[in-house]
Amino acid sequence: MSPTSLIAQSSVAAGAWFLDSGIQEPTGGVARYYRADLARNERVSNEITGYAISAYCWLYRRSGDSRYLYAARRAATLLADRAWLPSPGIWPFEYPSDSPETARAYFFDTGIIVRGLLALWRVTRESKWLDAAIRGGKSLNLFRSTVNPEVFHPILQLPSMEALPYSGQWSRSPGCYQLKSAMAWHDLAVITGNSDFADAFDNATEIALETAPSFLPGPTAAQTMDRLHAYCYFLEALLCKAGTPIVDDALASGVPTVGAYLRKIRPEFERSDVNGQLLRIRLLADQAGSVPLNREDAAEEAARVNDFQSTSSNRRMAGGFAFGERNGELIPHSNPVSTSFCMQALDMWTDFHSGLSLELASLI
Fewest 10 Å CB contacts: which of 118, 223, 235, 364? Predict the structure, then answer.
């Protein structure tokens, strides 16, 4: 089957959005999202740029269109050459970082950037991207707590490298969601054979399994929906260890739990990416033999994902996926992460029905 025949119409539209909407800035960086209400991009995020590299590589591999590879290289060049801070050897939150709020480094963001660079390395085999990814993988250790080495601070203030105080907001406290970022260690271990990376991921998996039961629900329905997005990060990363009893048990419990909360909260607040994430997890967990696929729920999630893709004639929005709905009203902001997850979920759903094998390493 040729690469071009693998790309579905939803991905053609999403790919056009990634290329033509202006979500990728002239620097090569990718904006956090397009503000439909203000008709402008939010600032460039290094994390979102990392996600976009993975998305561009996914689109390139399926279509063979060299424009995606060019866009991926532009984004990766920003991260490897300009956004990276040689001292202390870390990526800041935004590019450029010109305020105390943006001069911060996130554990989660770092892992996402590393995985984006590795996605580009798999396509090109250019050592520059692997070298930058290895630097980033090692920098994750800068987030390790000096009080409890098993804890990784989610946010460090730059240039002091002091940990920001934790809060009730899930992204500002350590938690099981950090395992998605730790997938960078898993991927680096597979590629380099470095046992230090493998040991780090194994340890992170143990900690995540211990802490995950207290992650859901959130204080409110809306906060629970946000936490479903983060909890899916945990389940996505667990797929690296699918086939081991403790992980299969966690997947078998976690998948229906997310599905139940999603459907319960949906009338009040629904995130498109939760549907996409859950569908991807279902398909990969079924392929791994860990959790049999609930076809009815998977089909419903695929339909919901499709509902969030914009058919607007406005090039800034056309083909992108909206963030979600609140009380039945669309939240129209075009979001690179939502678009990446939803696009990939629909592609994987198509591949599943075509009898094609799914690749965990390509998970955005």
Answer: 223
